[in-house]
Design goal:
The complex is a heterodimer of chains A (about 150) and B (about 170).
Chain A lengths: L9 H18 L5 H8 L6 H22 L19 H17 L3 H9 L6 H21 L6
Chain B lengths: L18 H21 L7 H7 L11 H28 L12 H17 L4 H10 L3 H23 L5
Helix pairs in contact in B: 2-3, 5-6
Classes of the chains: A mainly alpha (about 150), B mainly alpha (about 170).
């Protein structure tokens, strides 16, 4: 997708999609670390319906679009699935992410949504995420590791 | 961490009900679907961290073409997430109010750093792998989700067992 083929509707649609996404994160309680921690501590299993409900919607959408639709109207991109290559980092990253998520009860999308509901202490977490992302990028640039996304 | 996993006996597994979770989850999926159908883009929330760093950092990794090229719309996507949550929390919710967490700052900061490292190393987060990857039935994503779920549950239960609350 290049800038020349982008419709003027591109950014407005991204914004509206993000808005619906963030609305969902707030409605579901994922913007509150307490609700996520309640799930991880087995006090409230509702999170299963959030991830499950969302994955069913994207799953059906991906399946229909890749099979029956031609190209995305605003970018002329082909419809694909999200399939990333597997390597050791997928597991190592999952472990580190899991420990962080279990410690804080917050993940990136939910953190942005949390800021939206006025939860300014979440800036600790968002600041931490930028620090962590910077640290891994810095180290991997030094070591020349190009695997991963 | 396994011995700490003994579940509590609950009166109900869903003390807050199921509806807000289900409706919220469907909306999260719908937001991703709108962007996908219109643009073909599979949006995850965590690439924003690295692509946004390219505005202020010379580090090679953040300045790769795919980050420079996508950093603009990723900022817009994140602003959308913030506004959508604000729309619910401050306007549409049954009791519109500014809400703040009681989870301690060091948990948020320390957890945030690990989340920032882990999501970038592992190629995605709860939205990229958890929602879009699982929706794509990607084995890579299923392995990543199973891994982070297991370690998140272990960590949260360990922290709770050590008496940290919240």
């Amino acid at each position: 997708m290049s800038d020349e083929t982008r419709s003027p509707w591109f950014l407005p649609v991204i914004y509206v999609g993000g808005l619906i996404f963030g609305l969902g994160l707030a409605v579901s309680g994922m913007a509150r670390p307490e609700v996520v921690l309640d799930f991880l501590q087995f006090d409230d299993f509702g999170l299963v319906f959030v991830m499950g409900g969302a994955a069913v919607v994207t799953g059906i959408t991906f399946a229909v679009a890749t099979r029956y639709l031609d190209r995305a109207p605003l970018t002329a991109s082909e419809y694909t699935r999200r399939v990333k290559e597997f390597d050791r980092n997928v597991v190592v990253g999952g472990v580190v992410f899991g420990v962080g998520w279990g410690l804080s009860g917050i993940c990136p999308g939910a953190a942005y949504a949390s800021f939206g509901v006025g939860n300014y202490p979440i800036l600790w977490a968002i600041g931490g995420m930028f620090l962590g992302a910077y640290a891994q990028g810095y180290v991997r640039s030094l070591t020349g590791s190009e695997e991963g996304t | 961490m396994e011995p700490l996993l003994a579940p509590l006996v609950l009166e109900t597994p869903f003390p807050r009900g199921i509806l807000p979770y289900l409706v919220g989850g469907l909306l999260v999926g719908l937001g991703a679907a709108v962007i996908y159908l219109a643009t073909g883009i599979i949006a995850g929330a965590s690439t924003f961290l690295e692509s946004t760093l390219s505005y202020v950092s010379d580090v090679e990794r953040f300045n790769r073409f795919k980050y420079i090229q996508s950093r603009g719309w990723r900022v817009v996507f994140t602003l959308g997430i913030v506004s959508g949550a604000a729309l619910w929390g401050l306007v549409l919710a049954p009791d519109p109010t500014i809400w703040t967490t009681d989870v301690q700052w060091w948990r948020l900061l320390g957890g945030g750093v690990l989340v920032g490292i882990g999501t970038r190393l592992g190629k995605g987060c709860t939205s990229g792998h958890g929602v879009c990857g699982v929706g794509s039935l990607s084995n890579t994503s299923l392995v990543n989700v199973a891994t982070f779920m297991a370690f998140a549950i272990g960590t949260a239960q360990l922290v709770q067992a050590l008496g940290v609350s919240p």
